[in-house]
Every structure is written in structure tokens, then in C-alpha cells.
Write a structure and sequence with these properties.
Largest sheet: 3 strands, antiparallel
Strand content: 15-25%
Number of helices: 1
Structural class: alpha+beta
Helix content: 10-25%
Shape: globular
Amino acid sequence: MDFTDAAHPFEIAYFDRGAIDSKMLVLGGDWSAYWYNGYIYALKLRVDWNVFELTRASFLTQNEIDAAKAVHVSDLNVQNSRRSNGPRN
């Protein structure tokens, strides 16, 4: 989601791996997604996770991707998110 204009957010990407079992309802899919050091990690209810990397698109410039990749943290604790005012080394 792009929340640049909070009054008018819009979807910029969507991912769904599909059904776990084609014959019966089985809980699955992603239960959360987190940005961490240049990648998006989508954690699934079962088995594993998916890792995504940003790519250029009409709504995402290479400069924005480079800025996102420039921000690195030593650890990820989603319960205690850090405030960021831009890229830091």
C-alpha cells in the first residue's frame, strides 16, 4: 500500500500463493509481512516464508529503491519498531 497521501492510499502490489489444498479448506497464506534491510519478508501460516525485492515500476523509482536499501538495522523486532528519518549507516 502507498500511504503517501493518507486520505487516498492505494494498493501498489499484491501477492497470494493460492490454495494449500484444492479439495478442502486449510488455513494458510501470509499472516504478516515485514521490511528488513532491503527485502520484504512475508511469513506464512504454514511451512515457510516468501522473500520479495523491490523493483522499478510506474509508482516506484530506482532512487526510492536505492534509498530503501540504504537503511540497515542490526536486528528486527516487529514489536518494537524503530523510527526512521531516512537512510543511515
